[in-house]
Amino acid sequence: MKFEKIAAPKGVREYLPPESQAFEWVRQQLISPAKRAGYQLMELPVFEDTSLFNRGVGESTDVVTKEMYTFEDRGGRSITLRPEGTAGVMRAVIEGNLDRGQLPVKVWYSGQFFRAERPQAGRYRQFYQVGIEAIGIDDPALDAEVIAIADQGFKNLGLKNYRLEITSLGDAQSRAAHRVDLMKFVSKLDLDEATRTRSEINPLRIFDDKRPEIKEAMQSAPILMDYLSDYSRDHFEKVKSYLDALGVSYTVNKRMVRGLDYYTGTTFEFVHDDLGAQSGIGGGGRYDGLMEVLGGQALSGIGFGLGVDRALLAAIAENTLPVQDFNSDLFIIPLSLDEKAYVLNLAQEVRRAGFAVEVAFGDRSLKGAMKGADKSGARFVAVIGESERESGDVELKRMSDGTSIRVKISELQKVLEA
RNA sequence: GUGGGCGUAGCUCAGCUGGUAGAGCACUCGGUUGUGGUCCGAGAUGUCGCGGGUUCGAGCCCCGUCGUUCACCCCA
């Protein structure tokens, strides 16, 4: 009887050995600056009440209208697999009353996110992000620090071919004024129906169109930055000066568009040059109305999400991944069935002393077992037979040069440490 | 959701104008007693993505389908 194979669901990105090692390294590098800046872990559910995203991310966004994995659970509740991280963090902060303590609340998260899009290079239906949120303080210095933390994550990976683009989306008032003028401008353009519809939902979208004729037409469109209130403009100027002071280089992109509705004020994006169409490796910004919309206090917040999958692709493209295979310190081979229990025991003992120890399994020939030891990359190999078992000695063979020495088990630690 | 490329061994790929499947790497075993890397020898592995059609005959041609990949859209 032969069973059919079951394949992974379409578009999921999974990491198997040896690649998983690089993935884990990348994730660690990306988030370590946040940990050192006092951000604390938040472990959240991967599914939430659907209305959290409808309200938080925005009904007009593509993410909500056509990319969410939404289903009904057995209790008839509408559930959605999280498409992004910020809304869930805010929900948990409100629910856990973290905003009733000292501000800003500083948290980080790491995990998988879900969007039902057509898969493509760097775009998956289940993908990985790490991110941080700093909630409750509206200080341009905090904006700058958040951006610098993200930047440091990419620097940790050794990346060079990326750039940081920043802009200010202003406050609600500046946006409303701009929207009126932009709508007027766009309505005069000759657009196909799909683009027209999109522009009516969010006219800023048209700035993001890649077609040359549209780009050309948008050259003279009214720019949001020209509509910023005094407060917003001043805030943005300060963010820039702090970034300058931090030595974080950036370019101001007055036409930047973000796909999530909650962004206000400082908004930023990290773009990598070697990645093809899906070039955004991270992004974030301030979201001053979000907490209130979700039923909490009217507190401001700022955060970012970094794409672990894409950061890994970028590190591969720039060839910055360190070679770091797992190499055990000791590989133990039992010569016969009689030594198995003894060897298992010995391995546990040496592990307790803090060393990485592997055991040969499967009753292969000694030659085969040695081959396995060689491929494992172990520094030392010990073959245990009757004489070793009786004497309590171990003959350690150093694989790099083939020499071997006989030691007492009690002296093992000293040799392995050398 | 729309469009293009590609599906042959675990991996990378050959396979002529249609004549019923191959290489390299990897893997396992062996090259006399309890010691790896190199070398030599042997071995295992495929419903040629799947379904249909054309044909005496299809891995090769045609249609469909699924998967994958790239781009649009969108974004991490």
Question: What's the SSE blueprint?
Answer:
Blueprint: H1 19-36, E1 40-41, E2 47-49, H2 50-56, H3 62-66, E3 69-72, E4 78-81, H4 86-95, E5 105-114, E6 126-135, H5 140-156, E7 162-168, H6 172-187, H7 193-201, H8 212-218, H9 230-246, E8 251-252, E9 264-272, E10 280-286, H10 290-293, E11 301-307, H11 308-317, E12 330-334, H12 340-352, E13 357-359, H13 366-376, E14 380-384, H14 386-391, E15 393-398, E16 404-408, H15 412-417
Parallel strand pairs: 1-5, 7-8, 12-13, 12-14
Antiparallel strand pairs: 2-4, 3-4, 5-6, 6-11, 7-9, 9-10, 10-11, 14-15, 15-16
Helix pairs in contact: 1-5, 1-11, 5-9
The chain binds one RNA strand of 76 nucleotides through α3, β6, β10, β11 and α11.
Question: Please, could you describe this protein's structure?
Answer:
This protein is α+β, with helices and mostly antiparallel strands and 418 residues long. Helices cover 37% and strands 21% of the residues. It has 2 domains: 19-171 and 229-317, Bira Bifunctional Protein, Domain 2 (BirA Bifunctional Protein, domain 2, 2-Layer Sandwich); 330-417, Rossmann fold (3-Layer(aba) Sandwich). It has helices at 19-36, 50-56, 62-66, 86-95, 140-156, 172-187, 193-201, 212-218, 230-246, 290-293, 308-317, 340-352, 366-376, 386-391, 412-417, and strands at 40-41, 47-49, 69-72, 78-81, 105-114, 126-135, 162-168, 251-252, 264-272, 280-286, 301-307, 330-334, 357-359, 380-384, 393-398, 404-408. The strands form 3 sheets. Strands 1-5-6-11-10-9-7-8 form an 8-stranded mixed β-sheet, with helices on both faces. The chain has a 5-stranded mixed β-sheet with strand order 13-12-14-15-16, sandwiched between helices. The chain has a 3-stranded antiparallel β-sheet with strand order 2-4-3. Helix 1 (19-36) runs antiparallel to helix 5 (140-156) and helix 1 packs across helix 11 (308-317). The two termini are 54 Å apart. It binds one RNA strand of 76 nucleotides through helix 3, strand 6, strand 10, strand 11 and helix 11.
